[in-house]
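User: Can you help me understand a structure? I only have the sequence.
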Amino acid sequence: MFTCGGTGGHIYPAIALYEAFRKSHKHIDYLFVGSDYGLEKDIMKNEGIPIECIKSRGIKRSLSLSNIKSGICNFIAFFQAKKIISKFKPDLVISTGAYPTFHITYFATKKEIPVFLIESNSMPGFVTRLFSNKARKVFINSKITLNYLKNQSNIEVVGIPLRIVNSHKKIEQIFKEQNLNKEEKVVTVIGGSCGSKKINECLMDIINHRELNYQIIWATGKNNYSGIMEGLNKEHNKVKVMPYINNMSEILKITDLMICRAGAMTIEEIKAFAIPAILVPFAKATDNHQHINALELKNAGAAEILEEKNTDANMLYEKINKIITNDETLKVMKKNYELIKSNHSKEKIVEIIWDEMRRDGC
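Assistant: Let's start by predicting it. Here is the structure, written out as tokens:
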């Protein structure tokens, strides 16, 4: 049984592991459990993956009337989770953290079902911190995470199970399809599926009022796209604007510099393609975990960090120009990824899990 949900950073690592398991163990029954409130229901439906949804909800850390409704939903979710586990009878549970996984992880530990935790963020989330002592193994992305977990006897530093659909297209073909010039550098800007208000505002100012010596691929977020298209005061042949990037692996292959948030999956994709980056961590992320994620890349010399509250269009424009116009800087930043790049994470995790289960006679 896999339990995941909430954001892509908690969903796609589970799907990557699911595919790795099925590659060598197709005869086993698999089930995903998530929240009826998150992205997981639609994602699993599109992927053709079996999923059960429960009424798990996140609790805000400030006083809010919505917490009353969330409390009622979570109370119901306890009974739903218990029923699902009793019916499916999993031999093991893989939990990727976040609020949708709490109830299943709780009952799995109560019933002494082997639990394996996947922690994508450098700062471990609530579920990981709460159940790490009871888990058979805790798989983490970065050694930074070791600073936040007391029991380290069951921890494996393996990186994030990454799901990348490899593109076999040649660079020339991708440039042609994107209507971009292969002879000019490309800056790709993303703010997550919902977009980043701060990044979008800065970039619109840059495009409208400054000279560009590079090309821009800009994913605005689906809800922001129409407003941004109306706000651009001129057409620019160096700028390609879209609501969301579906062919991310292709875009990353032609990207010289990335400007983005510092969510766990975004960081891992950047690491996989070794792309120099300017990171603008989401200031309201729980426990400031995006800033901690970003520090790994900054400390390795592979990225620069701009704090959201201090960032404006002038600062971002100057930072982009300083990096993109210096080939030696780009080369060094790209090379520095060798210090932190993780390889074959999902295969390592699957192998370790099966070794653990074989010890139990499975």
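Now, to help you interpret it: The chain has a mean pLDDT of 90. The first helix runs from residue 8 to 24. Let me know which part you'd like to focus on.
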